[in-house]
Specification:
With 339 residues, the chain is mainly α. It has 10 helices and no strands. Keywords: Membrane, Transmembrane, Transmembrane helix.
């Protein structure tokens, strides 16, 4: 992705523009008969997907560049936790696990698309007059999947990186608390001061990563909700064979799973930061030294660490609950739109 980012050369930028045009041919051909008369005849679903695609590819091109990666690396190495065995184990275990889950979901989604193309081809392209749209869709699929895998891997890796940093400070805060409980020692000022400084550094790291994750999450969510509504409508209200319905269910589950894992990973950063704050608050009960209490006050009064959803709201447990409530409401409401 860095090879076609905004900080790459002119040839790479031209290549990115060319591939972006090829990717959108499907939507342009699908809406070539658009009318601006009193009756708007464009396919609104294709327009939403078209805009989401443009937004995602533009965001990665403009924001995920050499400058961004260098800044994230600098903030990560400033933490000086990359050589910690448990930290490295946590990062690589989660990275491999989530990549395997993502590849599995993409295989299911690819199976759904292959079946769709096979059914489309056998229906008779020339007879239906949609041969151009079919080949544009094939071209898009060949280019789209490598980009999709790269985009998802980047979002997963950045989220896991932030979660790993929070895991490290959470581990140290709990170790400090257990040590005080077992040995009944007085809380050391340097220990809590170093913990607060690391928390501030992690806050800076998460804020930097949030520059790309926040807008991408919003676009991903809009794209997912549109696809989810369309698939539910097709499965419930369109007459089709059982095999077609099965493949649509597989594609819907794969799309939902990838979106859920991305949001779940970003949520973990917020949850772990809350655990750190709670542990530090418990530490305040182990001391009456004013200097230490002031340091703890500075710690717990800092802004929350977490990713946001397009800058609208922070991703918390209540956000996830609201999201699933909205999806449930949409499923219930779909039959009324089908009448």
């Amino acid at each position: 992705m860095l090879n076609v980012s905004s900080t790459s050369g002119i040839v790479q930028k031209c290549f990115f523009a060319f591939t972006l045009i090829l990717l959108q041919l499907k939507f342009l051909i699908g809406n070539r008969d658009i009318s601006l008369n009193s009756i708007f005849t464009a396919d609104s679903r294709l327009i939403v997907f078209f805009l989401c695609d443009i937004c995602i590819f533009s965001l990665f091109h403009l924001k995920y560049n050499h400058t961004f990666v260098k800044k994230v690396n600098d903030l990560w190495y400033d933490l000086r936790i990359e050589h910690d065995y448990e930290t490295r184990k946590y990062f690589w275990t989660h990275k491999v696990t989530y990549r395997l889950l993502q590849v599995t979901c993409l295989i299911f989604y690819l199976t759904f698309n292959i079946f769709h193309f096979y059914k489309w081809f056998n229906s008779g392209l020339e007879k239906l007059g949609n041969a151009d749209l079919f080949w544009a869709s094939i071209t898009r699929a060949l280019i789209f999947y490598p980009y999709l895998i790269s985009h998802n891997f980047i979002l997963f890796d950045l989220s896991i990186l932030a979660e790993t940093a929070m895991q490290n400070i959470e581990k140290h805060s709990k170790e400090l608390y257990k040590e005080l409980l077992s040995n009944e020692k007085v809380l050391n000022f340097e220990a809590i001061h170093n913990l607060r400084l690391k928390y501030v550094q992690i806050h800076q790291l998460v804020d930097k990563i949030n520059e790309i994750i926040s807008p991408c999450l919003l676009v991903y969510l809009i794209n997912f909700i549109c696809r989810f509504i369309h698939l539910v409508y097709l499965i419930l209200f369109v007459q089709q064979s059982g095999l077609s319905r099965l493949y649509q269910i597989i594609g819907g589950i794969a799309t939902f799973t990838i979106t859920y894992f991305i949001i779940h990973l970003t949520l973990q950063v917020y949850l772990k930061s809350q655990q750190v704050i709670l542990t530090v608050y418990k530490l305040s009960l182990k001391t009456d030294y004013l200097k230490v209490l002031n340091e703890i006050t500075l710690f717990v009064n800092r802004n929350e660490i977490g990713f946001s959803l397009g800058g609208i709201c922070m991703i918390t447990s209540s956000t996830m609950t609201t999201l699933f409530s909205v999806l449930g409401t949409l499923i219930i409401a779909i039959p009324s739109f089908a009448r």
